[in-house]
Design brief:
By secondary structure, the chain is mainly alpha-helical. The protein is built from 20 helices and three strands. The chain has helices at about 5-30, 40-55, 60-70, 75-90, 95-115, 120-145, 150-160, 165-190, 205-215, 255-270, 290-305, 305-320, 330-335, 350-365, 375-390, 415-435, 440-445, 450-455, 465-475, 480-494, and strands spanning about 225-230, 235-240, 240-245. Strands 1-3-2 form a three-stranded mixed β-sheet, sandwiched between helices. The longest helix is centred in the first third of the chain and has 28 residues, at about 5-30. The radius of gyration is 22 Å and the shape is globular. The mean pLDDT is about 95.
Length: about 500
């Protein structure tokens, strides 16, 4: 029966297949593509995005959505229709020329950033970023008018449906009350503990082999995914073919490993989305904060735990050779060291939220038109000093140019990292309550039970529920930042 709902499902299946091609071409652009292919690839991806936009916003969509709403649908089908409506309304408010212009500007900015960042070339980067910001503000204006919200809330909703600045301000203001004190307590406590520094170089090949082993322990399906190198670690591709990347520094022992574990969390979520809903909006990941909760569950709740570090230590010794600094307790102190630094993706989990609040402050002011691109460096320096007590003046490479997110106009993304950390702590508390032997299992490198728990409570539900409903079902309550605070206090002050 080819009713309106069936026709919509067929259309979204086509959209999914086009997204598949776009995802793989985008992965290639950031990992394998020679520099000379940038313009042509950008134009091809922009054309593909335009085709998707036209298909999603076709003139018959409102009538199909309206007709489908009158049908007798199952609860899951109703959820799928709800998500179809969300996708349609997000896309239909934007003119096709803006979608195309933003895509081209973003890819131009991101590609240039790869060479501009190492060169500390803020002026060159700013020239491209201005265009991205101009187009992002135009998008925000259109979305805000359509939804009756602020500019920034309209963009935030793209990454975390239903979230707004009022809620974020409440959560972040509470965080600001206790995080500085905790950070001070932890750094003072750790400074009193004698810790031997690890020495030597850590060959890239050995780091990669160690990362692959960690992926295997965490249950990564290598038949449907792979690990590669990029300038900025990410998880891309599609559920059937998940592409994760990391970057290697032979002077750092754990950076790439923890990056791989983080991206494996994203990948495990994608690989375990319900196949019955493949190609449909209800079968997609719920939101970016849910996605980040999965990566941070793997990286912070498991990967930085005493139990996992004890498990992985012998393999690190085998990979890089033994030394006094790799004695168990010293190694754990190294892996759990809290030390404010300039680089977000290398930050410990206590200081990490400060990096997010810094970016949140700047990007919302930028989108709301309260500051301009030229104001970013000085504001960055001021807030880096305020939140982390660090001087970043003149260091654009490790300051306001370090992230990839703003290059393609992903304003509203950053808060999902800290929301994800809070959700991860809440999930782990529930998982441990239901699996009392979980710490012992992690100590043995056995993640089967916790992966099963995540699949049952998060992965298999995809977008069938709202974020709040999803976490109420999994943990018995909506977002509760208390679990994050308790986790940090127990790990670092306990």
């Amino acid at each position: 029966m080819n009713n309106a709902y069936t026709q919509l499902c067929q259309r979204f299946q086509r959209l999914s297949r086009l997204s598949h091609l776009s995802a793989i071409a985008g992965w290639d652009m950031q990992t394998m593509m020679p520099a000379g292919g940038s313009q042509a690839r950008g134009e091809a991806l922009s054309e593909l995005g335009l085709i998707r936009h036209q298909l999603l916003t076709d003139a018959d969509m409102p009538a199909l959505l309206s007709a489908a709403a009158s049908l007798s649908l199952t609860e899951a089908e109703q959820a799928n229709l709800r998500e179809m409506n969300r996708h349609y309304h997000h896309a239909s408010v934007l003119p096709a020329e803006l979608v195309e212009a933003k895509s081209i500007a973003g890819m131009r900015c991101e590609h240039a950033w790869r060479s501009q960042r190492p060169a500390n070339d803020w002026q060159g980067f700013a020239a491209n970023l201005r265009e991205v910001v101009t187009l992002s503000r135009r998008e925000a204006d259109i979305r805000a008018e359509a939804t009756g919200t602020s500019r920034y809330d309209a963009l935030l909703d793209l990454y975390e449906p239903g979230m707004n600045r009022q809620t974020l301000d409440r959560v972040f203001n509470e965080l600001k009350q206790w995080l500085p004190g905790l950070l001070k307590q932890v750094t003072e406590k750790q400074s009193a503990e004698a810790t031997l520094p690890v020495e030597g170089r850590f060959p890239e090949a050995a780091q990669k082999a160690l990362g692959l082993k960690a992926m295997e322990v965490l249950g990564f399906d290598f038949n449907h995914g792979r690990l590669d190198i990029s300038a900025h670690p990410f998880c891309g591709g599609v559920p059937e073919d998940v592409r994760i990347t990391t970057r290697y520094d032979e002077n750092l022992m754990l950076s790439a490993l923890m990056g791989v574990i983080h991206e494996t969390g994203h990948a495990r979520y994608e690989q375990n989305l319900p196949r019955d809903w493949a190609g449909q909006p209800a079968g997609e990941a719920r939101s970016m904060s849910v996605h980040e909760s999965q990566s941070l569950f793997m990286e912070m709740q498991i990967g930085r735990s005493r139990e996992f570090l004890t498990f992985i230590r012998p393999q690190i010794v085998s990979a890089f050779g033994d030394q006094a600094a790799l004695e168990t307790e010293n190694f754990i102190r190294i892996a759990q060291q809290v030390k404010p630094g300039l680089i977000r993706i290398e930050a410990d989990e206590v200081s990490y939220p400060a990096h997010i609040m810094l970016r949140y402050d700047i990007e919302q002011a930028l989108i709301e038109g309260e500051i301009e691109v030229e104001d970013i460096p000085a504001l960055w320096d001021e807030k880096m000093q305020h939140y982390l007590g660090l001087d970043s003046r003149g260091n654009f490479r490790d300051g306001c140019m370090q992230d990839i997110h703003w290059t393609d106009g992903a304003f509203g993304y950053f808060p999902t990292y800290t929301l994800g950390a809070m959700y991860a702590a809440q999930l782990f508390a529930s998982a441990q309550q239901q699996i009392p032997e979980l710490p012992a299992q992690i100590h043995d490198g056995d993640t089967r039970a916790v992966n099963h728990w995540l699949k049952e409570n998060i992965w298999q539900h995809a977008s069938l529920y709202s974020t709040e409903q999803l976490f109420k079902k999994a943990t018995g309550e909506a977002l509760n930042p208390h679990y994050f605070r308790r986790h940090l206090e127990q790990r670092y002050l306990g």
